Amino acid sequence: MSEISRSVLFGKLDSLLFTSLESATAFCKLRGNPYVELAHWLHQLMQAQDGDLQQIIRHFALDEDQLTRDIVDALDRLPRGASAISDLSEHIDSAVERAWVYGSLKFGAHAIRGGHLLLGILKTYSLRHLLKAISGQFDRINADLLMDQFAAIVGSSSENDLAPSAAGEPASAAVPGQSGGSVLVQYAQDMTARARSGEIDPVSGRDEEIRQIIDILMRRRQNNPLLTGEAGVGKTAVVEGLALRIVAGDVPPQLRDVQLYLLDIGMLQAGAGMKGEFEKRLQTVIDEVQSSPTPIILFIDEIHTLIGAGGAQGTGDAANLLKPALARGQLRTIGATTWAEYKKYIEKDPALTAASRWCRYTSRTKKKRC
């Protein structure tokens, strides 16, 4: 993407595009895809009522049923199995940027609408190639004609006169708390709810590790377990086992009413291009956890990414938000990271080590120290 701020640029999307991109992000997460792609966005835009896309489909006589099938087929070709969303794809960044160029310079618009998005894609070679790979139906759209007769083609669209959705905020992840929604619903998964509904398979051979996590959680100090070990040693499986124990009531009374949430760092990072934006989202999560009438424990996989030195661009030093709450006992966490990342980033931080107790896993059944 160019040096244009993603936050400002995505804030130019009209409310229909804003909402559909949020839905596409949730849809991507549900399907287990690593990146939010144009196919996710198109799938959600197809559900909109009488937007620009629907007007263009009718004007150029696209077969809407075939188009829908093609988009679903394109979604089925995407990689699956991701536990969290890494980010919006670069194609979405490019498409929004091109849409703003055409919308603002060609039409003098103050908001990006669906027609601008489609026109920007069709007028950009790499994006046009991607669009037509999703469905050959898009070949029927004459981009030059769409540009010349734009007002007439989308004249009956529900997007007419829609204002920018949230100038200065990224549309891919507006702060839900500002509209009365639950932040945890968007940025985390309720592991206890999944265990209760049978979505987590029984965990065997982990009784000792689960008991040790419970022991740490019951301590007065250093009561935030920090699981370390290479990928594949079963850190997440141990936490899933804990969720199953909580649901079954096979934990001390102090933990029986606890809700265990997996914090999705990928969702927190998606669209957080501006400095401070990631931290703002994380703070809303912490605030909701602290204000919840039901005790909540956050499971943070790859917890080292919440520290500026180990985090992705845009995360800043989010650990400074965690440390005061952990020190006061107002936030309970279970962290997971590799031993190398622990030594490099976490062990050097006295506040984090004072609040946590690490367990090192070296194989599926063997534990080095806890």
UniProtKB/TrEMBL annotation:
GO terms for biological process: cellular response to heat. Keywords: ATP-binding, Nucleotide-binding, Repeat. One of its GO terms (molecular function) is ATP binding. GO terms for cellular component: cytoplasm. The keyword Nucleus does not apply. Residues 10-156 form the Clp R domain. It holds the Pfam family Clp_N. It comes from the Bacteria. Belongs to the ClpA/ClpB family. This is Protein disaggregation chaperone. The lineage of its organism: Bacteria, Pseudomonadati, Pseudomonadota, Gammaproteobacteria, Enterobacterales.
